[in-house]
Amino acid sequence: MGTSDVVVVGAGLAGLVAAAEAADAGRTVTIVDQEPVQSFGGQAYWSFGGLFLVDSPEQRRMKVRDSVELAWQDWTGSAGFDRPEDFWPRRWARAYVDFAAGEKRAWLHGMGVRFFPVVGWAERGGYTAQGHGNSVPRFHITWGTGPGVLEPFVRRVLDHVHAGRVRVLLRHRVDGLTTRDGTVTGVHGAVLAPSDVRRGASSSREVVGDFTLEAQSVVVASGGIGGDHDLVRAAWPSRLGTPPEDMITGVPASVDGRMIAITEGAGARVVNADRMWHYVEGIKNWDPVWPGHGIRILPGPSSLWLDATGERLPVPLFPGFDTLGTLAHLRTTEHDHSWFVLNQAIIEKEFALSGSEQNPDLTGRSVRQLLGRLTKGATPPVEAFKDRGEDFVVAETLAELAAGMNRVAGSDLVTETGLREVVEARDREMVNAFTKDLQVTAVRGARAYLGDRLIRVATPRALMDERDGPLIAVRLRVITRKTLGGLETDLESRVLGPDGRPVEGLYAAGEAAGFGGGGMHGYRSLEGTFLGGCLFSGRAAGRAVGAAG
């Protein structure tokens, strides 16, 4: 079907960045992707657009003092690098933190990317200074969310398409890498039937032809395994207990992991496949796009987090503090769900939903809509879930709340007596300005940060305060999301084989490469680092193949 200097497998964020950078260097590039044009841009389109930056102007305006040293302390405390396979991931991590503290913002800003002025505080940790979590707020929300991150790279790629340096072949599924004498020389696969499904929906796999492409370099930027629950369960590590029988899906079905196995079959080494990042605050989408479509709640710190039986989770497993620590604990409870218990005042101030489509004000860059967040009431998407979502219970009394929780769960695990004991015990701690309840202390501490006090953390009051009703309970399930391990790469994004040497002609970027090196996050993420990892590794791959000649 043709020859080009570079073939990029995957039209998601990492692939588009790699293609743009390679074409900027004068290379001819062919992008292939199995999905139709409606899904151009891949999974990043659906994201909230959060980016990890260090010592940014936005942080400084919010009086946040950050540094590369503090960020590296947080990264290593979270990553927990402890394997020989972490040699390249650790080097990628250090390079990425330096990038986030250096040219990342200026590079993006020069392409027109702008940020919401209030910096979010994700993954707060709750351990010691050298443990997991962000010591300071670093979650920078892109103005335009995920589409806003994609926009400059789509524009750059399309400019190269018009100039004849890039061609895009959609509905082309790669089924294998072509090799000659140990060197990757191209790709081959199936041409799929046209599909008019809406963005993100499952498309047909009907084969109508085949294709072969030759290239000097192939960049694999095909994403992770989160859309295939069987692959997730097969890679699930024992340290996280047994995988849930009932999971929901945070990514389109096209995030199927096929290319990771195909690339491994061509001589690549996959490392840290047991490292993964799945959220425990998942709710079923009442208006789904893909099968089992779940949405993650981005919670503030005030909701009570209860297991399926109504028992409060241990310290410091509070909302927004330790994603995988909470997942590991909940997998010991023998139930696949847990609960947030809160009230209307908390949902109005503290509930955000992950995803570009759940944040029309930020995605649409509407200042007028955004100002609505400062008025009384939850955002319209949150209210829609409260009214229509199958996981929400709204009640005036604790007796009604407990009955509703059991109705939603299809069990009688929560008792009114037990729920009342937990709620009233917490409310007694609100009488004084001091407390032994570390969650209450954390809530009050969070409000010392101006951003949290303004738009993220509710005024600390009793859950049963009559001013703040009604009461609300939300059933939470595990929602699949990110692959943290992947194809091992050096700092030039060259894919390495089992002997540690580069597989000639083969590169990888984005989630397929564990966002760099085969797992630059280690065991845990600091958030805002997935899109950023696609940007950084895609840029590295594109510049490397651009210089390869």
TrEMBL record:
<keyword id="KW-0285">Flavoprotein</keyword>
<dbReference type="InterPro" id="IPR014614">
    <property type="entry name" value="KsdD_DH"/>
</dbReference>
<dbReference type="InterPro" id="IPR036188">
    <property type="entry name" value="FAD/NAD-bd_sf"/>
</dbReference>
<dbReference type="Pfam" id="PF00890">
    <property type="entry name" value="FAD_binding_2"/>
</dbReference>
<keyword id="KW-0560">Oxidoreductase</keyword>
<protein>
    <submittedName>
        <fullName>Predicted oxidoreductase</fullName>
    </submittedName>
</protein>
<dbReference type="GO" id="GO:0033765">
    <property type="term" value="F:steroid dehydrogenase activity, acting on the CH-CH group of donors"/>
</dbReference>
<feature type="domain" description="FAD-dependent oxidoreductase 2 FAD-binding">
    <location>
        <begin position="5"/>
        <end position="531"/>
    </location>
</feature>
<dbReference type="InterPro" id="IPR003953">
    <property type="entry name" value="FAD-dep_OxRdtase_2_FAD-bd"/>
</dbReference>
<dbReference type="InterPro" id="IPR027477">
    <property type="entry name" value="Succ_DH/fumarate_Rdtase_cat_sf"/>
</dbReference>
